[in-house]
Amino acid sequence: MLYVSITGPPASVEMDIKENRAEHPRMRYIRKIFDVGLPITGMFLVFLAALGVDDLQMRILLILVGLMLIHVGVWKLANPLYPNERRYHDLRVEADRFINLVRDLNQTTIQAKALDDSDSWERQRQVLQQMHRCVDQMANLAGREDHEPEVDLTRPFRAGANF
């Protein structure tokens, strides 16, 4: 059985990574415009209403709209309206699961130290096993977009194997 190890990514892999990072520059540019433009537009409306509008109802309306635009821009409330750029959703879900397991590990270890009984330490070992399975699953999901089939990367490559 022959195992193949890669010491570093080939140049073609590095190029693919750089291309994936720059895949949606127009969308990021639009997001930046909205993130900066909404609060500035809101401030402009507030100043315009305060300094240039004589009608009291129109002044109040423009100030309220301006304040709403400022809040939408500052708190990034428009982000759910933008299309999602993530392509590796399954990996993100598994990473979130791993973070939750880290919290569980901390809690079970604290509890095991406090109680110092075999059941508590067994629960801590179970959480560790779940973390190991989660890391293995992340290895399977890494680099796989949502529409791609799952590949088992934990199995070693064998030269001469039938594909």
Topology, please?
Elements: H1 11-21, H2 25-52, H3 56-74, H4 89-115, H5 118-141
Shape: elongated
Oligomer: single chain
Calculate the terminal CA-CA distance, rounded to whole Å: 16 Å
Weakly predicted, low-confidence segments: 1-6, 11-18, 159-163
- Considering DSSP H and I runs of 4 or more, what fraction of the residues is helical? 55-70%
How would you explain this protein's 3D organization?
With 163 residues, the protein is an all-alpha fold. It folds into two domains: 25-81; 87-163. The protein has helices at 11-21, 25-52, 56-74, 89-115, 118-141. Helix 2 (25-52) runs antiparallel to helix 3 and helix 4 packs antiparallel against helix 5. The chain is elongated. The model is unreliable at 1-6, 11-18 and 159-163 (pLDDT under 50).
